[in-house]
Write a structure and sequence with these properties.
Chain lengths: 420, 420
């Protein structure tokens, strides 16, 4: 197994100005060819700390990929420090200088500023990785069986260099050592907590193969289960992954709505499409979020004609047709009002199903009987008793709205699958 | 100067599945109170590597903040390793157990599964930081002048614990040692591109003080301008920041809708509240996103009674009242339809203003005359000619929906400020 470390360089990463998306991109690329990423170290443009980080990374890994600090300005110190660490002199690389000069011409920026000459200075013995996306080349150095790479930190330049140069070179040079591929599949669940899920799935040691792991990743409205398989053979790895997935699906199938990048709304829209049924919406506290989610899905127009956002009580009464008496007697956040909202919008819009949400998202509007987080959701269907559900969510408005929308989608998903 | 290291724990961070947003949030929070972040180390759920990372971080820093691996399942090993490193026994902490049990009750999930008992096991001598957002408490340990903190990796739980506990405690304990404060203020603009903005603002060297920087950060629907000031005195720093902000505001005031975490919808709702006017919405391609944005703002019920999502043409005609002839003659994506949608919903809902959006978000629905990204937006107002605007946005559905919603809000903002 080959181990790699990513060293992300730049003050902007340490003062919270920039989120380190480069590291996850590089991790992904390395994993895909069977290189394990053992650590990501993020460090500022600080000579002593950077030297120490490079030394440690180089000592403990087969491959080190550093990014950042290759620009032409005084605070870009990475190359100097790398040269020093490997005891190499920085020498002018004429082909790179010509490339940098040409870039200034091509892009109409004019004559190359003097500062950019520094970008053509290369540590002796390093391989230059031509950069078609910017002025700073990537640099690569072999020592024994180890490889050191440094790339510019600008994400689209880094990605281009990874794809065009680094991954190819690593695949070639480590061909014999790259046996192990790492494959992932994420199963997406909803309607069940992490620990109950783990209970239902059971003791992982009974079904996980060697080299396989299962991780539970709780999100706002559900738990993601990531299966990872490490294998020296891609086909075997895929088989193992499939076997584990099949086992897990058997234990918890009603709670699974998709995998990897699927969304709950895609699952619901897909089921509606398949069953040639439609849904409309009547939203109060979510104010359009449920409809927005449904229409996130391209092709949703076949199953979702529209909805009414009845944020004010007057609109619930006048536009939706909720009886004034219901609101007077039970209030707008009530089982009766939720049911009426769903039934009214279903009739008006002529859909198979209708979903409604009314609640107190917070921070205002709470009463002693109806604290913030009190949410009623209803699902109406012709010739069927309207289903109503009460939830007590938390105190945060945005989270309550998000979870309410997902809970409504989940009610419909279960109905479409005859799960409730 | 106090130095801190952030240790981000979790396999999901090393396989590129999750971008490490926690680290930048924590960096920001620490910088704001004058703590320098010297390194971020990201490490998997791997005993040996995690122990080594904690040891190194603890050796070289005054403060270590670790996140992740505090869940109830078998792959959550952080607490055990931390306890081992500090040579502490894990002991049951009854108040925490009661809190975890209570959480399961409150949220109607039922009885606490056995696995969650582990979340109430605390290393002896550690301070428990109660977590109102989840089951895993934060943990804090002082040794000499050093502080070790570990928090759950779920972002909203981590943030809550940082705000409610960690930052307060650090400020109290290190009052005398906190160094240079770094202050940021971000001015939010819309309706003007980055280079025009830079032209209007002028040469930064004429108004930026020593230690101050100005960065232009283009986002989907506007450009953010971040002013940063480093100062050894909070009051001086704030004065400098205020002076720079005042200068910038003078140059570009019509384009500024807020600062820092303000949103465009907050600006619009605020203006409506102040002017005691109201708005309703008629949405087609955005499918509820515009309404969702307006109702993101707590207190929006005073200015937004609701809207109609008329995704299907039949709904535009039957529910909104758009004349069938308009749709037959010009199509649903047309100036005439957008104007009718806004005028109809305004009358039905009795609001001062109404906004409508109809367009081709993509990827389906395009025609040679109306390519993906063609969007019509209308703003209706009583006794005023309806304003209509045509936009040609890009090819990506989600971006088109997002930008359309913001463009509609910006139309209304300019009307409310008499800017157009």
């Amino acid at each position: 197994m080959l181990h790699a470390e990513i060293v992300s360089i730049g003050d902007e990463l340490l003062i919270g100005q920039i989120i380190n998306t480069n590291a996850s991109y590089i991790s992904n690329s390395l994993n895909a060819i069977g290189v394990d990423v053992s650590r990501v170290t993020t460090i500022g443009d600080h000579e002593k700390r950077l030297s120490a980080a490079i030394a440690l990374a180089w000592k403990e890994n087969d491959i080190v990929i550093a990014t950042g600090g290759l620009g032409p300005t005084h605070d870009d110190i990475s190359k100097v420090i790398v040269a020093k660490f490997f005891k190499k002199k920085l020498v002018l690389h004429p082909p790179t200088l010509r490339r940098v000069e040409a870039r200034f011409k091509t892009f109409g920026i004019g004559k190359m500023p003097k500062a950019n000459i520094s970008q053509a200075m290369i540590p002796e013995g390093f391989t230059v990785l031509n950069n078609d996306r910017g002025t700073a080349p990537g640099l690569l150095y072999y020592q024994g069986a180890k490889t050191f790479v440094i790339l510019p930190g600008v994400p689209h330049e880094m990605k281009w260099l990874m794809e065009q140069h680094v991954i190819q070179l690593l695949k070639k040079n480590y061909a014999k050592k790259l046996g192990d591929v790492i494959l992932h599949k994420t199963i997406l669940t909803i309607g069940i907590g992490e620990s109950l899920l783990a209970e239902k799935v059971g003791d992982v040691s009974t079904f996980l193969a060697k080299g396989a792991t299962l991780a539970y990743l709780p999100k706002l409205s559900g738990v993601r289960m990531r299966i990872s398989v490490r294998s020296n053979d891609e086909k075997n790895g895929k088989d193992t992954l499939r076997r584990i997935e099949k086992f897990i699906r058997k234990q918890i199938s009603p709670f699974i709505f998709g995998c990897n990048d699927d969304t709950l709304e895609e699952a619901v829209v897909g089921l509606l499409q398949k069953q040639k049924t439609t849904v409309s919406t009547a939203e109060s506290c979510t104010g359009g979020m449920l409809s927005m989610k449904l229409t996130n899905v391209s092709g949703s127009s076949a199953v979702f004609p529209g909805g009414i956002i009845s944020y004010a009580n007057a609109i619930k009464i006048k536009q939706l047709g909720v009886p004034q008496a219901i609101i007077n007697k039970y209030g707008a956040v009530s089982e009766q009002c939720a049911a009426a909202m769903a039934e009214c919008v279903r009739k008006k819009f002529g859909t198979t199903y209708a979903l409604s949400i009314t609640g107190i998202a917070g921070p205002d509007g709470a009463t002693p009987e109806k604290p913030v987080g009190t949410i009623w959701i209803a699902l109406a269907q012709e010739h069927t008793k309207t289903l109503t559900k009460l939830y007590h969510l938390g105190s945060e408005r945005s989270i309550n709205r998000e979870r309410s929308s997902d809970l409504a989608l989940e009610l419909l998903r279960r109905r479409l699958l005859n799960l409730s």
